[in-house]
UniProtKB/TrEMBL annotation:
<keyword id="KW-0812">Transmembrane</keyword>
<keyword id="KW-1133">Transmembrane helix</keyword>
<feature type="transmembrane region" description="Helical">
    <location>
        <begin position="38"/>
        <end position="60"/>
    </location>
</feature>
<dbReference type="GO" id="GO:0005886">
    <property type="term" value="C:plasma membrane"/>
</dbReference>
<dbReference type="GO" id="GO:0015250">
    <property type="term" value="F:water channel activity"/>
</dbReference>
<keyword id="KW-0472">Membrane</keyword>
<dbReference type="InterPro" id="IPR000425">
    <property type="entry name" value="MIP"/>
</dbReference>
<keyword id="KW-0813">Transport</keyword>
<feature type="transmembrane region" description="Helical">
    <location>
        <begin position="184"/>
        <end position="207"/>
    </location>
</feature>
<dbReference type="Pfam" id="PF00230">
    <property type="entry name" value="MIP"/>
</dbReference>
<dbReference type="InterPro" id="IPR034294">
    <property type="entry name" value="Aquaporin_transptr"/>
</dbReference>
<dbReference type="InterPro" id="IPR023271">
    <property type="entry name" value="Aquaporin-like"/>
</dbReference>
<feature type="transmembrane region" description="Helical">
    <location>
        <begin position="108"/>
        <end position="134"/>
    </location>
</feature>
<feature type="transmembrane region" description="Helical">
    <location>
        <begin position="154"/>
        <end position="177"/>
    </location>
</feature>
<comment type="similarity">
    <text>Belongs to the MIP/aquaporin (TC 1.A.8) family.</text>
</comment>
<feature type="transmembrane region" description="Helical">
    <location>
        <begin position="235"/>
        <end position="256"/>
    </location>
</feature>
<protein>
    <submittedName>
        <fullName>Aquaporin-4</fullName>
    </submittedName>
</protein>
Amino acid sequence: MFPCQEVERDTNNNLGEYLPNFTLQTETLSCRGQNWLLVFRLFFGELVASAMVTFPYFLIDPTLRYCAVSEALAVGGLVYAAVWVTYPLSGAQINPIITLAFGLTRRICFFFVPVYWIAQFLGAGFAMSIAYYISPFVKLSPDMGMTMPRSGITAFQALWLECLITFLLLVVILAGTDEARETVWTMGSGSTLACVYMLMYLVTTIVTKNLTGASMNPFRSIVAAILRVRFEHQWIYAVGPLVGCLIAVVFNEVVLTEDACWIRTKAWLTDMHYFRNHSYSLSGRPSKASTQGASTHLYSDSSMLFVAEFVMEDKAHVTLLDKNSMLFILD
């Protein structure tokens, strides 16, 4: 057992060690040895987050002069609350497109993607069904609560607007949850994370509510269409966000991430053992021995001390992180 050596925190991996995960907590679980109680908590947390955010869509009077602002404030406020409440449980992804982006960028194992999607769909269905049946406004308009291209907007224009606002939303979220960035430029703080989510939903809703309905969330559109039994133009709200997601993922991984380089991009696309915490630009591609059999778990306790454990073939590498320092213990 070597004595503990304290070194200055090195978020840019200048010392050559693995980069720390200090932004995404439960998402860093590996696919092996699942804790099913944790999976249930993740599922429940995401269900609650999705329900909170989608609840107001049938409850806002469409005749209000500033309906777009009212919806933006209601949804933005609930996004803040949902992130604040459920981030420690599930990461508060809320939106299936965000979950897909996290899966494609290898932030979460694809085992979790259907778990998130089922929870998000059920949450949206539960909340919007309640709102639909208690709302006095659903009789005012046959498309009230739905996402539809508004008057003067073609389907093609609506498609690319949805693509654009989804791209902007994801670029901000992916950049803020990039392990390779310095702490000051990430969503390391819970309040910062919630504020950024809220502001992005707020701005995109105000700008595009009267143009496309400002969906960015296929489940929000699908549930409203099912309740209204109207499905025209709903393909826009599946295809647009999906295209925006794919563009945002490529842009983030190839251009925006702090560690962007050809070696990293090639590993991301081809290596089943691709490891986001490794600095490919400084250290090159890691050896098979250092990545095969590696599992990553991230926990937090009441002292907000994060423990990241990398179990290798012949040793355990345990990294303890706090705000000011990093401890390395090799056994």
